[in-house]
Design goal:
Length: 280
Amino acid sequence: MIIAMLLLGCTAEEPDKKNKDGDADPFADHALMADGFFNVAHRGGKALWPEHTLFAYGEALEVGADVIECDAHSSSDGVILCMHDSNLARTTDGEGLLKDHSFDELRALDAGYWFEDGPEFYPYRGVGFQIPTLEEALTEFGGAPVSIEIKQVSPSIAHEVADLVDQYDAWERTTLMSFFDTPIIEIREREPRALTALTALEGTDFLNADEDYEPPGRHLHAPMDFGGTVVSRDLVESAHAHGIKVWMWTINDPQDMAMLIDIGVDGIYTDDPILLEMVR
């Protein structure tokens, strides 16, 4: 597994220390720019365990995931938490917007409340699962790589996210993305060490790139149907020629997984990291 090698301070292969122009590549030693393939536990593997819980993150890493994902929001008193929805109702026993509640209020909620294992069977209710903080995602798992998607844009939490990554010296094991331009631009302006994905608009620019194209980010996080066409070997090779790694989301079909691995993608976000580990 890539995660084991990262924790030992080595990678599958020695990364190229130069970019396509022959200059020193500032991300040459970044864990998530290493050669090899990354199994990324989408929401911690939400098909298998209550999503965005420390339990899910830990289980995902145990079964072979290389990277855990945190969708970032903020409590009303400024604590950055990992949760997909802005609303509490789908995954917890709470109601309303996450950002309207204090950290203490949010930590009192049951984050395993609605996870269903068969009709009307909720095995994780009342066992103590809480909404995790980004701080916990960065510190609880022995330095495991983390993919951070900044979901909340109003008010902006980009600098608060950057503060935590900086505090735990995690720039070389995190990748940051957002479907919105503003938080990623704020992150890049603040921290040149930040490995960021192309935003949605930047991804469109990449599809029209010529050989002189300079990517503003070094990861492309893409769905199967990207820019109106299914991701192809040519697209992956074009990304690699520009120094961009291609990570696909959210892939839960084994045939799709196998096809994407065959054409050379660098990572797959999946709700089922056990299945992906079997396929790869």
